[in-house]
Amino acid sequence: MKNEEKILNERIRLAKEELIGVRDSKVPYRLPSGTWIEIPEPEEIHTKGFWAKKNFKVKEGEEPITKIKIWKNYQKTGCSKLVYKETAFYAEHQVEEKEKKHE
């Protein structure tokens, strides 16, 4: 299973348990039977690193909403290594925009 599928499945699980919200928009979802349906789009979850790239930071005192084993690509001195690693994820409601630095 691809990382994107694992993350979407986890977002759906968290939304069903009402740990994260859902949006008004719909996303396609494939049932185990192979049938495609549209479901309400669950709130986004991402790693701290992803949120940081989008100029957000995890709010102080927040714990990960979930941990998922995903494939991560690590690069060191010209070598690339794919690792299956448990990774912490944070929901939209757990982050805030970073303050802009005044120069």
How would you summarize the topology of this molecule?
Blueprint: H1 3-16, E1 22-30, E2 36-42, E3 45-46, H2 48-53, E4 56-58, E5 66-76, E6 79-91, E7 95-97
Antiparallel strand pairs: 1-2, 3-6, 4-7, 5-6
Question: How would you characterize the overall build of this protein?
Answer:
With 103 residues, the chain is an alpha+beta fold. It has one domain (3-95). Helices cover 19% and strands 47% of the residues. The strands form three sheets. It has a three-stranded antiparallel sheet. Strands 1-2 form a two-stranded antiparallel sheet. Strands 4-7 form a two-stranded antiparallel sheet. The protein is globular, with a radius of gyration of 16 Å. The N and C termini lie far apart (46 Å).
Approximate helicity band: 10-25%
Task: Give average pLDDT, whole number.
Answer: 92
Number of domains: 1
Structure annotation, total helices? 2
Unreliable sequence segments: none
- The N- to C-terminal Cα distance equals 46 Å
The gross shape turns out to be: globular
Radius of gyration: 16 Å
